Amino acid sequence: MTTRIVELRKGVLKKNDELARELRARFTAADVLVLNLVSSPGTGKTSFLQRTLTELRTRGAAAAALVGDLETDNDARRLAQAGVPVRQINTHGICHLEAEMIGRHLDGWSEVELGALDYLFIENVGNLVCPSGYDLGERIRVALLSVTEGEDKPLKYPTLFNSADAAVITKIDIAGAVDYDREAALRNLREIRPGIRIFETSARTGAGMGEWLNFLAEAR
Amino acid sequence: MHELSIAAEIVDCVTESLAAYPNARVLEVRLKIGALAAIVEESLQFCYSLATEGTPLAGSKLVVLNVPITVDCTTCRREVALDSLQSFRCPGCGQPAGDVRRGRELEVEAIEIEEAEEAPAP
Does B98 sit within 8 Å of A159, measured CB to CB? Predict the structure, then answer.
């Protein structure tokens, strides 16, 4: 018997990273801006996205959405009310979306149809831990945080907030009722992700949506 | 929470590399985990013993090498290590420093294997 050390230097998520790179190349070729929306369960990702999709449609932009959940197609049905193409991804227990799932659910959306889109939103499984390591081929990762969750959430889940390109604060219409400390929330986000763009919104009243939609238009 | 899928990926990743060493048994896997990789070592160790059962990695030891976060400080013009995950500021000058250079690693660095000697020709 002989023993020896073999150097590998291989990324554990290499397969996902390679698939994500292929997806990104495909999205770039189709000129579609892809965003990955991440937050804990109950932040209001679906309501925020529904409002975003509706307003984009009013502005004449073409958008579509992929939505991830462990089970049910409830969110896909809610989002479809915005009158845009939506597909549900059921992970059946897996706590995050992976690039392979995105690729599989794009099947049947031809390159022409993908090319006709301005935006593709991916609503991740509600989870502030696991999605941080999985690249889905998106260009912009958006972390959402509601006023009811506690202003220290970015400090508690730094790995995810640090990986985000933009942050959206949701439910600001009820901020007063829950003693939301705006300064602390903004300070904590910036402490974990210096320079991050922050949008303060309410899907119910539409507050802050204009600034968010302008950001989307500029990012294209 | 996703440590079991990570453990399964490690098994796949190492098994692939074993193609070049057909008679090898794995004794040890050395894994680099960055502080931003969102992996809990205790949980990964537990899942590792489950995921390696019935594979050439069965019974092997998972050795974790923790990688601290370093950021590029544009004020000090150098790469500095962060003291904690609670504040992305240069510990030297106190300025915000968000350009992460290291700390996201999740990488099999090396494996230690045991190979059976070729049986001598009769």
Answer: no
